[in-house]
Structures are given as C-alpha cells and as structure tokens.
Design goal:
By secondary structure, the chain is an all-alpha fold. The chain has helices at residues 11-38, 49-69, 74-88, 91-99, 101-104, 107-118, 124-133, 138-160, 168-176, 187-198, 205-216, 220-234, 240-253, 256-267, 277-287, 290-309, 312-319, 325-338, 340-348, 365-395, 403-406. 31% of the residues are buried.
Length: 414
C-alpha cells in the first residue's frame, strides 16, 4: 500500500491571507489617522501660536530666498525692494520689507542688525523698522522720511488741535479702534435697484445679492467682509475661481430667481423706492437659506480678519492670490503671522505666497497608535512581498536529488 504524505496548508495560502488583510486594513487606519490629525473638529489652518510661529519661519525663508535670488548682495537686493515700494507709494509693502530685514540681511549686516535690536530701547515693529532704516542707502532713507514725515506731522497737528477738555483715555480709545470698511450703500439704494430689476432692467445680481444680505442679515464682521469682497470684485482683483466660489455660496444662500420673484409680488408695479425699504428687508429675511448663509458668513469674517491684520487696500491685493476657502484661510494665517510682511511677499512671491501657511499637528496618543498600526501593516506587506519574491527565485533554481528517491516504490505482495 502506498503511503500518503500529509501536507499542511501551503505557505502561499497564509501569505495571501495576511497580504490581503493588511492591504484592506491599511487604508482604514490611514484614513482614521488623517481624520484625527486634520479632522472636521479642528478648524482648517487654525491660527494657533505654534502655527503662527511656523508660518512666520516659512515666510522668513521665502524672504531669504528673495534676497539671494536677485543681482547683487542681499543688502542691495533688499534696499532695491524698499526703493521700488517707495516709488509705487505702497506703504504697507515698505513696512513689510523693513520688517523682513532680519531674514533678508546676511553675514555681518544681519548680525549687526540683531545686535542693534538687542540693545534698542523698547521693542515691537517700530523698533525693528527704525533699526532697519539705518541699513538703507541715504537716498532711500530720505525718500522714506519724505513719504512719512507729512503723515506724522498731520497726526501731531491733529493732536495739538484736540479739545483741551477731552479725556486722554477717550482719545486713545478712538485712535486704537480700527475703522470699519463699508461700501455696500444703504437700503434706499438697494430698494431703487430692486425696483429697476423687477421692471426687467439689467443689474449686477452678484453685487445686489451680496449687498442685500450684508445690509439685512449679516453681522457687522460679515458686513465688513462683504464690503471688502465687493471692492476686490469691482477692482477686478479676484481670481475667477474664487469669484465662482463666492458666487456659488452666495446664490446658495439667496437665489436671485427666488428673490426677484418675491420682489415682483411685493412691489406690484410701483416704484416706491423709500417706502419699499421694509419690503427689501422682509424679502431677504424670508427667502434666505440660513445654513448656506452661515457658511458664506464664515468666509466673509475671514476676509474681515485679513483686513484688520493689514489694511483694506492690502486685503484686496491678498485676495488676488486666493482660489477657494482653503486658500482664504491660508491667507488669513499668513496675514496674522506676518502683518505687512504678507503684503510684500504676496507682491514679489505670489506663486509661493500661500505655501508659507503652516498647520500644526497635535500629537495625541490615539494618533500615535493609528500611525503605529499603519506602519505595522506596511511592514507586513513589505515582508510578505520580499518573502514571496525570494521563494519564486529559489523555485527556478536547479535542485540535486538522490537517485534512491527517484526509484519507483515496488508494490508489496498480498
């Protein structure tokens, strides 16, 4: 009787099972790790202290690249940037390059500037600007003083002309309070445009809808952001993709067709501009989608934050680099980290401007365990693939067998 050799499950079956299991589990672990690190619970590009510091370092690296990519020494290149901004009348850009002096000046110039800042009286941006001015050529220094002295004199004259009985605290409060930016008009203008629209006149539906939401439903922060977005659009400084992005959100919150239909029923063929201002408010309040409006207002508040970190004019320039909501929050993070540095960087390094934004990952125990599991799955996949490859090479190799094992087995006598 022939003896049958008992064979277990072959290695290929175990390898295939483990390989497929690891291949299926790894994407889920990776997705979970990404969700923990960049989940919906955490705001995108949150302006935390770590993110602001990392973003400022990235901006300094870009300024250092600008200083070394021009013709001449870093000090000459930096001075030329300041000269160009002075000639163009961009005060924010001038301040931006002066504040970027520690990152752009190299060698002995950079070391002496840091030493000067170390012994300077006081601190802050003004101390840095005063120290950086000494490294500019004399003609550039004179041009800077010429551009800034009248402004200083104007403030001095206005301070001297202030009423003597005014309280100092009240004066400081008025000076420190940022001025709100408003270009949306008023409800009377909106009612006049609505009446013309109902009677089939052509209007700018984007501007009308945005102004209507800003004047009737938006909070003050969103209203200021709407004014800035509208100014950038009128100046044709919005990227077409970002304009489409805003328009999609705007029309989702207040569809123009629905608003026009409601206005047609309310106006009833009359041109009562002033009397119809309550009608405008009622129409927008009853036709708006509250959920979509909140999504739009969150973007408008971001635009307003950028303006308060720089200026309305600088905000229009920064918005030209934005294409979607993620870019908008990156621009805010850069503006909060660098202030006027962001204006200078956006003008001369626009293609890489948004890349300076940094988001910081908070390393929790759950995230560490997820990454450890992911690495274990990848290591298992690599080990199985290497083992199978090694076995396949060895299978084709010539094997020596003894002649004894090649003989056929003689059946036993029965």
């Amino acid at each position: 009787m022939n003896r049958r050799l008992k064979r277990g499950v072959p290695f290929a079956a175990y390898a295939a099972l483990l390989f497929n299991a690891a291949l299926c589990v790894a994407p889920f672990i990776g997705a979970r790790a990404i969700s923990i690190a960049y989940g919906d619970d955490r705001p995108e590009y949150e302006p935390s202290s770590e993110a602001l510091s990392a973003t400022l370092r990235a901006m300094d690296a870009r300024f250092a690249h600008l200083a070394t990519s021009g013709d001449g020494s870093p000090r000459e290149v930096w001075a030329q940037y300041v000269r160009e901004e002075l000639e163009s009348g961009d005060n924010a850009g001038v301040r931006g390059f002066l504040l970027a002096a520690p990152a752009m000046l190299k060698g002995t110039d950079g070391e002496s500037l840091k030493a000067r800042l170390g012994v300077a009286n006081g601190g802050g941006d003004q101390a840095l600007i005063d120290a950086a001015l000494t490294y500019l050529p004399e003609d550039v220094q004179e041009s800077y003083e010429k551009h800034n002295t009248p402004i200083v004199s104007m403030f001095q004259n206005s301070a001297a002309a202030a009423p003597e009985d005014a309280e100092p605290d009240d004066q400081l409060a008025r000076e420190d309070t940022p001025q709100e930016y408003r270009v949306l008009g008023d409800l009377r203008d909106l009612a006049r445009t609505a009446a013309n629209w109902v009677h089939e006149a052509r209007i700018d539906e984007f501007s009308f809808t945005l102004a209507g939401l800003g004047l009737t439903l938006a909070d003050p922060e969103s209203q200021e952001g709407a004014s800035l977005a509208l100014s950038a659009r009128r100046a044709q400084r919005l990227d077409p993709k970002f304009e489409t992005y805003l328009q999609r959100k705007l029309y989702a919150a207040a569809p123009p067709a629905r608003i026009k239909h409601a206005l047609g029923g309310e106006f009833q063929g009359e041109y009562g501009y002033v009397a119809n201002t309550p009608v405008i408010q009622r129409v927008f309040q009853t036709t708006v989608d509250r959920g979509a409006l909140e999504s739009l207002e969150s973007d408008l508040r971001v635009i307003r934050d950028i303006s308060h970190e720089t200026s309305p004019i600088s905000t229009v320039a920064l918005l030209s680099t934005v294409k979607d909501g993620s870019d908008l929050r990156r621009a805010r993070l850069i503006a909060q980290a660098g202030g006027d540095r962001a204006v200078a960087l956006a003008r001369y390094d626009g293609e890489n401007f948004l890349d300076s934004a940094r988001t910081v990952i908070h390393w929790s125990n759950g995230l560490r365990l997820q990454l450890l599991g992911l690495f274990a799955c990848l290591a298992l996949l690599g080990a199985i693939a290497a083992n199978v490859a090694w076995r396949s090479f060895r299978r084709n190799a010539t094997r020596r067998r003894s002649a004894v094992y090649a003989l056929d087995e003689v059946p036993g006598l029965t």
